[in-house]
Write a structure and sequence with these properties.
single chain; 72 residues; alpha+beta; Alpha-Beta Plaits; 31% strand
Length: 72
């Protein structure tokens, strides 16, 4: 069963999304889905996956210099 994870981020452009795209695709793989809502004031990242943890997602974004916080 897929888990839905939602994050507030500091991503605010398609260029920044493209920087993260390879890493997110590797992390999420074929069984999941991710997208950014850059129209939202919190620049939401939504991830649907059966295997990835919130810590993995926040770590990836933090390693690229972006803020990322899971919303509960």
């Amino acid at each position: 069963m897929k888990e839905v994870l939602v994050f507030r981020t500091s991503i605010n452009s398609k260029r920044e999304v493209n920087v993260l795209k390879p890493g997110l695709n590797r992390l999420i793989a074929k069984d999941g889905y991710w997208n950014f809502d850059l129209e939202d004031c919190d620049n939401i990242l939504r991830v649907e996956t059966p295997m990835v943890t919130a810590t993995s997602i926040t770590g990836l974004l933090n390693n690229h210099g972006f803020f990322c916080e899971e919303l509960h």
